[in-house]
Amino acid sequence: MRRILTTLLSALALSMMFSCEKAEPTKPDTTYTVTMSMSSVTSSSAVHYDLTAYEYNDAGEKVANNSISMAVKGSTKTFTASSRAIKVKLYIKMYSDNSSVTPQYLWVQQVFYLEEGKNIEIKVEDHTKVGKTEP
User: Fold this and answer.
1) Sorting pLDDT into bands at 50, 70 and 90, what band is 26?
2) Which of 7, 75, 85, 133 makes an SS bond possible with 71, Cβ 3.0 to 4.6 Å?
3) What is the CA radius of gyration of the chain?
4) d(CA 6, CA 44)
5) Is the pTM of this model over 0.85?
């Protein structure tokens, strides 16, 4: 009887050992943080800024976008990138509450490449180069 019990317990232990699936470790998210750091952009400014981050895949197609509305100095937001995205481009809308002022649309003249499993910083600062054409 003891031999049968030992055999059954051994068989049970072996079956449990081989039947368990190994869980793959989860990869950390790929993220990026957009920060408004322009010294003149405050909540009392006459000009407002909306920041839109467009995510692109390796074929240059837009696969996602995220935004910060009415960003002021110190506004910051971290976004989780699409699994298909490899780079981010930042688009800025400058506008006023005064309807007679035409809004301006500008691109930050730099492409920000994502690093898998890491966070990259994207800052809009006083010296950030902007232009009307997409970088």
Assistant:
1) confident
2) 75
3) 26
4) 79
5) no
